[in-house]
């Protein structure tokens, strides 16, 4: 076979010329051999029947311009084969050049077409999603604006409610006071009349005055309950936890309730509770028990009212008031604890009450960290159970704080806080401990004096309006005593007496409530006014002696370490404000100490001044410049230079307050 014939046999291209109506005017040899097409024949004769419409479309499209990549299915040697044609209109007619497509090419083209179709669909879907997202974004913006408006409205309503609550509290307090004065007068006058101080009364007059006194006592009880309820709701009722014996509370209850009016067939029994001790507010517990016993006596016509107390294994104490009275329908077990709630009954109509006693009692029980519940059935009497912690949470927290303060943390500057309100004391500890201070608590001036005798604080926070005493005298003592006059004192109170505080030597005067961030900043500033602690690390005793002499008559307190290991331990325990570190030590170099100190958050921020007699190379100087505050040469060391470098280090680290006054 010749090369020309071989090339023709291997070629996959065909060349045709036809008219616009598909009549062939020329077919090259390959077209003749492959398709059996001759001049004068119509192209439809060699086209697969399913592709006739595509052939017509190709001829029509070519009449308008060139076409490339047009796919047609033609009959080659009696078998259908796919050809890809390029066509263009010429002087002789429409010229078509095509090549047979393999199955792989056909599949690739089909895959490409499907991919393009999928991409088009994805594009359309993306466009739809973009529209949806734009709509959602608009809706979200509208919702956000709506929430902002709602939030503003809620803030406005909260302000209104807060003002209303304040007005209500003031109104209740004022009205209660105004009510109490005439009520007490009525009771006093009724007592004079019944005691026949100014002469006898007729029996009828005695009955009338007795009614007056009873009504006045009922009204006074109502005023007291309303005032208690208002204080509880406002969170202003004070709690005074203290150690007491339960026996004393029960004895006082027995004496108080003995004179309470009750039926002749009713016996009040108060069991003993020997050896039972508590740390709580005994006044609030006694108030709850009085309310429970008085209710029980009112609604018990025959039998007994018994009061018991016992300790539980879970460090709680349970008080029970049990009666043999009418009992309470279980449906009303929660109703009776609501404000002004009263159950309609024959006895209830006969025995008048305020409807607040049980409500106030349950809220007082909650303040004590406990609960008040009832178990009862109609006709079977009632049992009210008061359960309270044996030690009130505030008392246990205060005891834990006092125990922590007995062991001084060398890494924290001690701050004496003189405050009688436990909750405020806990806030001080929270705020100041976060700022790196240790709180030394004192709840009276005497406790504060004992604390100062034990430890010299870096600062004092003083409330001058303690319960039962004024601490102005204590402030004056601090500023008059040579040993304590330099301790910064910040006076915090609810009464604006800034002029008096300044006159007595207070460094700061604030009105409560305090801002925690402002407190931390101010205490840090005040505590820095005291002596500055320096740690000198040098294995040469002569160098340490020289530094001690240079620092004579300055407020700097020097601590010494001779090795790298001692320096690391001393820095952690003493928390000095500045470290003077010799570059070469017996067990290492300054880099060893610096690496350890910088790795510990507690010592990372301490400024370090390197002192050395060694000539440092560029690498050592570069690293020390990064990690140290200054470098001192031992050969040129002087008092002025040492103090200047210490000042600069303190100021750079933010530990300076007052050090600039050193001469």
Number of helices: 20
The main β sheet shows up as:
5 strands, antiparallel
Overall 3D shape: flat
The total beta strand count reads 26
Strand order of the largest sheet: 2-1-5-4-3
Low-confidence stretches: 6-10, 656-663
**What is the rounded Rg?**
49 Å
The helix content, as a percent range, equals 40-55%
Quote the beta fraction.
15-25%
- Nearest-integer average pLDDT: 78
SSE map:
Elements: H1 3-10, E1 13-18, E2 24-27, H2 29-35, H3 52-64, E3 67-76, E4 79-90, E5 93-100, H4 103-194, H5 203-234, E6 242-245, H6 246-258, E7 266-270, E8 277-280, H7 282-298, E9 303-311, E10 316-323, H8 346-350, H9 357-367, E11 371-376, E12 382-389, H10 393-406, E13 413-418, H11 422-434, E14 437-442, H12 445-454, E15 459-462, E16 465-466, E17 469-470, H13 472-480, E18 489-493, H14 498-503, E19 508-511, H15 516-527, E20 532-537, H16 541-550, E21 556-561, H17 564-574, E22 578-582, E23 584-585, E24 588-589, H18 590-599, E25 608-612, H19 618-627, E26 630-633, H20 639-653
Parallel strand pairs: 7-9, 13-14, 13-15, 15-18, 18-19, 20-21, 20-22, 22-25, 25-26
Antiparallel strand pairs: 1-2, 1-5, 3-4, 4-5, 6-8, 9-10, 10-12, 11-12, 16-17, 23-24
């Amino acid at each position: 076979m010749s090369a020309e014939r071989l090339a023709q046999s291997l070629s996959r291209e065909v060349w045709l010329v036809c008219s616009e109506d598909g009549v062939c005017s020329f077919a090259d040899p390959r077209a003749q051999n492959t398709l059996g097409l001759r001049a004068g024949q119509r192209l439809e004769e060699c086209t697969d029947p399913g592709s006739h419409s595509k052939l017509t479309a190709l001829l029509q499209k070519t009449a308008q311009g060139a076409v490339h990549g047009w796919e047609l299915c033609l009959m080659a040697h009696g078998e259908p084969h796919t050809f890809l044609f390029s066509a263009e209109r010429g002087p002789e007619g429409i010229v078509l050049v095509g090549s047979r497509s393999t199955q792989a090419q056909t599949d690739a083209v089909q895959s490409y077409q499907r991919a393009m179709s999928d991409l088009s669909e994805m594009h359309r879907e993306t466009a739809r999603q973009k529209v949806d997202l734009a709509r959602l974004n608009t809706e979200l913006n509208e919702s956000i604006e709506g929430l902002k408006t709602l939030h503003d409205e809620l803030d406005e309503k909260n302000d209104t409610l807060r003002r209303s609550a304040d007005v209500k509290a003031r109104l209740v307090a004022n009205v209660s006071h105004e009510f109490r004065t005439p009520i007490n007068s009525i009771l006093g006058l009724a007592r004079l009349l019944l005691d026949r101080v100014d002469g006898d009364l007729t029996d009828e007059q005695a009955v009338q005055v007795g009614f007056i006194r009873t009504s006045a006592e009922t009204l006074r009880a109502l005023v007291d309950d309303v005032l208690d309820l208002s204080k509880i709701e406002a969170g202003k009722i004070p709690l005074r936890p203290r150690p007491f014996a339960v026996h004393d509370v029960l004895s006082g209850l027995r004496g108080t309730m003995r004179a309470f009016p009750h039926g002749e067939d009713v016996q009040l029994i108060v069991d003993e509770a020997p050896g039972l001790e508590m740390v709580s507010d005994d006044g609030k517990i006694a108030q709850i028990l009085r309310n429970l016993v008085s209710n029980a006596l009112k609604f018990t016509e025959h039998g007994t009212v018994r009061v018991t107390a016992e300790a539980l294994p879970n460090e709680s104490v349970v008080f029970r008031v049990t009666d043999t009275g009418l009992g309470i329908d279980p449906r009303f077990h929660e109703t009776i604890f609501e404000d002004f709630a009263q159950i309609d009954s024959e006895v209830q109509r006969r025995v008048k009450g305020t409807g607040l006693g049980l409500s106030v009692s349950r809220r007082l029980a909650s303040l004590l960290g406990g609960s008040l519940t009832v178990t009862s059935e109609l006709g079977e009497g009632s049992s009210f159970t008061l359960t309270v912690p044996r030690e009130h949470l505030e008392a246990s927290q205060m005891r834990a704080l006092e125990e922590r303060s007995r062991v001084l943390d060398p890494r924290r500057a001690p701050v004496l806080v003189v405050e009688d309100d436990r909750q405020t004391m806990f806030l001080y500890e929270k705020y100041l401990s976060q700022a790196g201070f240790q709180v030394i608590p004192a709840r009276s001036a005497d406790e504060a004096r004992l604390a100062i005798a034990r430890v010299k604080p870096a600062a004092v926070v003083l409330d001058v309006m303690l319960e039962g005493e004024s601490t102005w005298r204590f402030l004056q003592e601090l500023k008059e005593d040579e040993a304590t006059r330099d301790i910064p004192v910040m006076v915090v109170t609810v009464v604006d007496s800034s002029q008096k505080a300044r006159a007595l030597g207070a460094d700061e005067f604030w009105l409560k409530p305090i801002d925690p961030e402002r407190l931390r900043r101010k205490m840090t500033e005040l505590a820095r006014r005291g002596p500055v602690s320096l740690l000198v690390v040098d294995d040469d005793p002569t160098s340490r002696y020289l530094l001690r002499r240079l620092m004579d008559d300055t407020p700097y307190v020097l601590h010494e370490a001779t090795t790298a290991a001692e320096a690391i331990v001393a820095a952690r325990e003493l928390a000095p404000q500045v470290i003077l570190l010799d570059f070469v030590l017996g067990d290492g170099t300054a880099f060893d100490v610096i690496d350890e100190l910088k790795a510990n958050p507690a010592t990372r921020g301490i400024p370090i001044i390197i002192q050395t007699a060694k000539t440092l190379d560029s690498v050592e100087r570069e690293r020390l410049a990064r990690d140290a505050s200054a470098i001192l040469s031992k050969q040129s060391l002087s008092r002025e230079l040492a103090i200047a470098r210490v000042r600069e280090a303190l100021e750079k680290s933010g530990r300076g307050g007052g050090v600039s006054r050193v001469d």
